[in-house]
Amino acid sequence: RGITLPDRGFATQDDAASVEVNPAGLGFTSTAELQYNLQLAPPDLDGTVDTGHAIFASVGGGGLGVGFGAQFLRHPELGGDLDDLRKYSLSLGFGDGSSVAFGASYNFFGSDESPSIDGLSTWDLGLQVRVATALGIGLFVRDVDASFVQRGAEQVALRRRIGGSVALRLWDGRVVLEPQICLLYTSPSPRDRQK
Description:
Number of helices: 2
Oligomer: single chain
Strand content: over 45%
Distance between the termini: 30 Å
């Protein structure tokens, strides 16, 4: 999981942050963009909630967009040597530039403390369909390859996340309603697969 972004629209995100939210959004970009995001914890919650910062860059036009993300994250709930990591993403979005786009992100991770995270890689896939000016649909699958992380003597599966949303644009786009759903699926460990 990357940095928490305030406007995560699976069906509407079409800027540099699409690298993290839904790579299909890069297929709708028409300019170059550089974005910086910072997530801090209030003093009374320091060390208990996620923090980090991220840089996202994208360039696109004509239905093709590419993006890059570098995120420096702390996830205290993971504990031990898994809570301090870096996430790098290379993304591609392509489509007709107006109504449909597909996208993929290759994510690779780094950590000075955890050998199991250092060198870990995953794939994300996304789709955005703009049925009409007032209606859009977004779908994504994160960690498609369901990688495993070594935690002590046990291998822990990354949770595959499948989600989507429907966006309604009202009053010429002044109001956007986008209910979202996200399902988590944890793959069985290699030990469970052998049983």
